[in-house]
Write a structure and sequence with these properties.
414 residues, alpha/beta, Molybdenum Cofactor Biosythetic Enzyme, Chain A, Alpha-Beta Plaits, five-stranded mixed beta sheet, 15 helices, elongated
């Protein structure tokens, strides 16, 4: 059995081309293939059209030795993936009795009646390995022909993902001589272009491990990937390179490794330190609280928050003084400071954070344009306030996301 050296992904379905369904299968399979050390040369989507499918299958096999197809295994006349692959490989279809009986049992267990056209799903390319589907009706298939391999899977992610883990990965693992491990460095305060400039020599010189920066909403992620015979060795290679990156100018802007998000990094840090947090939000409108409570286990560290949008709410809920609001305004260093302190004291938290600013698109002035945001953090030792000057050309959503992320970073560094 020949090793799989490269793969392509072909997702089948006119509904994908029309945008009726978001194609999550390609990204899922690509991530899983990377973990197995199998590079993906190309992803494509093709409609339920025989001629275009023939062309797409032929092109994929001209470049790669393994083609993974999703969708088009259903019972209807436009489900033709299996037929097109069998035609290309010169194989006849035959009824697989075991697959048919499993399908009948599945329908019976769900209290549904199996119609005649469902038998089409039990037709198998001659010589194929049947991948039984315990999560739906259509089985998948592995077809090996000469030096080519086709893997056919149903389209619904609720079926595809467990089938991939339980059926496909054990098969591919036997055919891969290496694994790829990737680790992600999360950065705030330095953009993608600046990160690329600082890491340019590494990116150009290194082939294993590799370094690649990606832009996000006001932050940046650097992916470090290494290929080795086993995951432990590849992981160690990644860690060694991450240690070198920390020594560069990028290092001071790193807020976590494989933490997925600022809110996750903050919750993990608070749990480790045994600290609690509360927030008062104006321009972010509850986004900080929402993002924190998206994280499982946040109830151990997050006491609550106040959306103090109006000046009256800032006074009544978190104790911002009327004099401060009159003298300095709602968007000011002084107001942010009192909001953070007030919510900390009101909820009895170790740390209080606050945001107040102008998210736009209206409301800006020459002195305080759209994108002006004050963020503050308060502890028993005192307060710290920072001014963010975000581009007024950015969307309201972007400004709010950046304000929330930077406020959480201020708490993380406390």
């Amino acid at each position: 059995m020949k090793d799989v050296r490269s793969a392509e992904i072909l997702c089948v379905g006119t509904e994908l081309l029309l945008g009726d369904i978001i194609n999550t299968n390609a990204s899922y399979i690509s991530r899983r293939l990377a973990a197995l050390g199998i590079p993906v040369y190309r992803q494509a989507v093709v409609g339920d059209n025989p001629e275009r499918m023939r062309q797409a299958i032929a092109e994929s096999f001209s470049r790669s030795d393994c083609l993974i197809l999703t969708g088009g295994l259903g019972p209807t006349c436009d489900d033709i993936t299996k037929e097109m692959v069998s035609e290309y490989l010169g194989l006849e279809l035959e009824l697989n009795e075991e697959a048919l009986e499993r399908m009948k049992s599945y329908f019976s267990s769900t209290g549904r009646t199996m119609t005649k056209n469902n038998e089409k799903q039990a037709m198998s390319p001659r010589g194929a390995r049947v991948l039984q589907n315990d999560w739906g009706t259509a089985p998948g298939f592995v077809i090996e022909r000469d030096d080519k391999t086709a893997i056919l899977l149903p389209g619904p992610p609720i079926e595809l993902e467990p089938m991939w883990r339980e059926r496909v990965e054990p098969y591919l693992f036997e055919r891969s001589d290496s694994v790829i491990v990737s680790k992600n460095i999360y950065i705030l305060g330095m953009g993608e272009s600046a990160v690329e400039e600082k890491l340019h020599d590494m990116m150009m010189e290194l082939t294993n491990p590799t370094v690649a920066p990606y832009a996000g909403n006001g932050e940046c992620r650097v992916r470090v990937s290494a290929r080795a015979k086993d995951a432990e060795t590849a992981s160690r290679m990644c860690d060694d390179l991450i240690a070198e990156i920390r020594k560069t100018e990028v290092g001071e802007f790193i807020y976590g490794i494989d933490v997925d998000s600022m809110e996750n990094a903050l919750v993990l840090s608070l749990r480790e330190k045994g600290l609690t947090l509360a927030c008062a939000e104006s321009c972010t409108g509850g986004l900080i609280a929402k993002r924190i409570t998206d994280i499982s286990g946040s109830s151990q560290v997050f006491l609550g928050g106040c959306v103090t949008y109006a000046c009256s709410a800032k006074e009544k809920l978190v104790g911002v003084s009327h004099e401060t609001l009159e003298k300095y305004g709602a968007v000011s260093e002084q107001t942010a400071r009192e909001m953070a302190r007030g919510v900390r004291l009101a909820l009895g938290a170790d740390i209080g954070i606050a945001t107040t600013g102008i998210a736009g698109p209206g409301g800006g002035t020459p002195e305080q344009p759209v994108g002006t945001v004050y963020i503050a953090v308060s502890t028993a030792e005192g307060e710290e306030v920072k001014l963010l000057t975000l581009s007024p050309k950015r969307s309201r959503e972007f400004i709010r996301i950046c304000a929330a992320t930077n406020a959480m970073k201020l708490a993380l560094n406390t």
